[in-house]
């Protein structure tokens, strides 16, 4: 065997052994929520998970973003299907629920309890969490909006999770960034959401990698 042939064979074997490690380094982030995640009225490639995955890959991250959104879900509905969603074995979760609770005028206390149980369930699987906050429509009245808006920062503090205060920042009530219903972002609106939340998602990725490294050290 010539030196060149030996080197080629050695490199081929090295690549084969490296492939599983490279695959393991690829993270699965689960976006868990309602129509804002699922992509009501949007085409493939335009949804929040799709655009976020593209943005992360453009920044060099090896990450897939799972679309675990279900249109119409309240916090209670989200809680009821969590075990089914966890079958996809995500590495971390972006939690985006609460908008439908507000639109239906459901009690903020009940929503807080549901979301708290959801966070606990994700924690049982040792999943890092990014909680995306919501704000109630201002026409719900000052008492309701104050109670509703306070739920998300309180949950983030209680459970010590990463927190992004308002998922629809710079998009809510902006006509050009929403579909005709004035509620669901269009593709351009989703792009704004992704740009705004991206730094927090990067924090989530770093926390996930750190958590995985600690688990590996404990196992060894």
Features:
alpha/beta; Rossmann fold; five-stranded parallel beta sheet; 12% strand; globular
Architecture overview:
- It is a single chain.
- It is globular, with a radius of gyration of 20 Å.
- Helix 8 (142-159) links the parallel strand 4 and strand 5 (162-164).
- The chain is built from nine helices and five strands.
- 55% of the residues lie in helices and 12% in strands.
- It is α/β, with parallel strands linked by helices and 220 residues long.
- The longest helix has 33 residues, at 187-219.
- Residues 4-24 have low confidence and may be disordered.
- It has one domain (26-219): SGNH hydrolase (Rossmann fold), CATH 3.40.50.
- It has a five-stranded parallel beta sheet, with helices on both faces.
- By DSSP, the count of extended strands is 5
Strand percentage: 5-15%
Whole-angstrom Rg = 20 Å
**CATH homologous superfamily grouping:** SGNH hydrolase
Shape: globular
The chain-level structural class is alpha/beta
Order of helices and strands: HEHHEHHEHHEHEH
CATH topology: Rossmann fold
User: Termini, distance in Å?
Assistant: 39 Å
Low-confidence stretches: 4-24
Oligomer: single chain
How are strands sequenced across the largest beta sheet? Answer: 2-1-3-4-5
Query: What average pLDDT do the residues reach?
Result: 90
Summarize the structure.
With 220 residues, this protein is an alpha/beta fold. It is built from nine helices and five strands.
Q: What is the topological layout?
A:
Blueprint (H helix, E strand, L loop, with lengths): L2 H22 L2 E7 L1 H4 L9 H11 L4 E7 L5 H6 L1 H5 L5 E5 L2 H5 L4 H17 L4 E4 L9 H18 L2 E3 L22 H33 L1
Parallel strand pairs: 1-2, 1-3, 3-4, 4-5
Helix pairs in contact: 3-9, 7-8
